[in-house]
Structures are given as structure tokens and as C-alpha cells.
Amino acid sequence: EVQLVEAGGRLVQPGGSLTLSCAASGFTFNRYNMNWVRQAPGKGLEWISYISTSTSTIFYADSVKGRFTISRNNAGNSLYLQMNSLRAEDTAVYYCAREVSTRFGDNWFDPWGQGTLVTVSS
Amino acid sequence: QSVLTQPPSASGTPGQRVIISCSGSTSNIGRNTVNWYRQLPGTAPTLLIYTENLRPSGVPDRFSGSRSGTSASLAISGLQAEDEADYYCAAWDGNLNGWVFGGGTKLTVL
């Protein structure tokens, strides 16, 4: 079964740091690009970062650029999100998502993990 | 403010057909395929429609998608109570170099 399991979410103070992890299983992790998407309480989905299979290409949303760092460990089948200088507006459920790609250039997210909650508050 | 624009809510009675729109621009929907995700209350999003009109296994053919120019639509026919959920459109944006989502549409089955 293809599965993604996030971990690491917790309560953290403004200005603090946190690292989220996403454990992948049931598929060949190093063949897929990966993403992080977040959802603030009661709000919609917001894409925040992308990493290619070899880590050669990385993108960030403007809202987290310079503060968050995406990385992956292909040998360990894991995806990470290092979050620094956290703000109250970073409070959200963070999902990792596998990006499925075709040779025609079509891409989509499937599956998504169950999410991990990050709360930034004093 | 989301890059893709969806109505915040939609509703219908059982058996009806409902259409949810998603409006974008030439940098996203205008040049890249659209995907739709469904999020049931308290759960993670799941893939509903990919590459505009393809359904993953397990998604009934009551769900269909289409795209025209810089807009896309999700149609749900034969509405059922279990279809109550939040629906999101998404596309890659070539100008932003990132994925963009609609704000989500909450579907209520009356």
C-alpha cells in the first residue's frame, strides 16, 4: 500500500524552529518528486514547497521562502521540512504529497499523508 | 486570496447535478492541466480528478472534469449525501513556479 506518514508537529513559540518528517512506503521513493502543502485552521490548501527526485530542483512559495527548507533522504525514504522563524500565521496542518508525473508533462498529487499539526503560539 | 477562484459554497438535492467552477489565468490553467481534490471533514485531501477529466480507480463516473481556456469545471451528477465535502482545484503556475489551489468549495447536499 502506498503510504505517507507525517510526524513532528507540535506547539512552538513564535520565532522558534521545527522539523517535520514524512515517511514514505509502498513505492520507490527516489522516483517521485515530493511536495509539502499546508492548511490553516478553517482555511483552504496552500502549496508551500517542491523537491525533485535528485534534489536538483526546489521551489518554495513566497510565504515561506527564506524561512523553510525542504530536503529528502532517498536511502531512508523520507521527506523533511525544516521550519525556522515561525510565525503565528504558519499555524496549520502540514501535508506531504507524492507528485505523480507523466511523460506528457501532466502532474498531480497522490497520495497525501494524514497531516501533522503545527501550532505557533506563545 | 487564492490564485485560482472557486465559489465558496455549492449545494444541491440528492440526484441533482452540480457544477463547481475554477477560474485561473494563462500562467496556470491556461497552459497546464487541472486536478481536483476532495476533502471529507476531518481528513486529508484525496485525488478526485487528474489531468482535467481522468478519474483514479474507485472514483465513480458521476464525477467529471473539463477545461476551457483559463477556466475549469467539476461536475457531479446524481448527487449523494456522501458527496458532502470540500472540493479544491489545482494547477501548476509557470510564472510563480509553484502549485496553486482554488480557495475550495464546500458542497452541501440538502
Descriptive overview:
The complex is a heterodimer of chains A (122) and B (110). Chain A is mainly β. Chain A has strands at residues 3-7, 11-12, 18-25, 33-39, 45-51, 58-60, 68-73, 78-83, 92-101, 107-112, 116-120. In chain A, the strands form 2 sheets. In chain A, strands 2, 4, 5, 6, 9, 10 and 11 form a 7-stranded mixed beta sheet that branches. In chain A, β9 (92-101) and β10 (107-112) form a beta hairpin. Chain A is globular, with a radius of gyration of 14 Å. With 110 residues, chain B is mainly β. Chain B has strands spanning 9-12, 18-23, 35-39, 46-49, 63-68, 71-76, 85-93, 98-101, 105-109. In chain B, the strands form 2 sheets. In chain B, strands 1, 3, 4, 7, 8 and 9 form a 6-stranded mixed beta sheet that branches. In chain B, strands 2-6-5 form a 3-stranded antiparallel beta sheet, with no helix packed on it. Chain B is globular. The model of chain B has no long low-confidence stretch (mean pLDDT 97). Chain A binds chain B through residues 35, 37, 44-47, 50, 59-61, 95, 100, 102, 106-115, and chain B through 2, 33, 35, 37, 39, 43-47, 50-51, 56, 86, 88, 90, 92, 97-104.
